[in-house]
Specification:
alpha+beta; 30% strand; 6-stranded antiparallel beta sheet; 6 strands
Length: 152
């Protein structure tokens, strides 16, 4: 099982089809262990491509899966108070920068995730792999956070 396969299945899940608007992006996948179980978390946000710019909106949903079965164990709307007003973008970026900035970082992160997801050894060794993944996550976040998440 790969992270791309999990994401493909997730987008077909009835909850996703029923609750998640089309323009939502999964954001950076975060793997963690709790009480010996492996989880995958996404903070979903909206990204709208317009001629010459990309509008980036704040995180809207939190979604967590228990692995390896992919069961959704958490789905939360992160808006503090649903209002009739639309969300405002947190930043506007040039589309070429957004598309090019994170390709290598995400490819490396997904490769790390796939090593974790395919691992069949001991829990202790799995915890070490997850820790290495989290280090790579932080590096990826440093690269992507300014342009894809918050426009810093």
């Amino acid at each position: 099982m790969t992270l791309e396969m999990i994401e493909k299945e997730l987008r077909r899940h009835p909850l996703w089809e029923r609750e998640i608007p089309i323009q939502m992006q999964t954001g950076i996948p975060y793997l963690y262990m709790e009480n010996g179980a492996l989880y995958l978390r996404y903070l979903l946000h909206r990204r709208i491509f317009r001629p010459g710019r990309v509008l980036i909106f704040p995180d809207r949903y939190e979604l967590e899966l228990l692995l390896p079965d992919g069961k959704i164990v958490c789905f939360r709307d992160l808006r503090r108070e649903p209002t009739g007003e639309p969300d405002r973008p947190v930043c506007v970026m040039e589309p070429d920068y957004v598309l090019e900035a994170g390709k290598m970082a995400l490819a490396s992160l997904y490769a790390h995730a796939d090593r974790v997801l395919g691992f069949t050894g001991s829990k202790k060794e799995l915890e070490t792999l997850v820790s290495q993944y989290q280090d790579q996550y932080r590096k990826t976040e440093e690269i992507l956070r300014p342009d894809i998440l918050y426009g810093g």
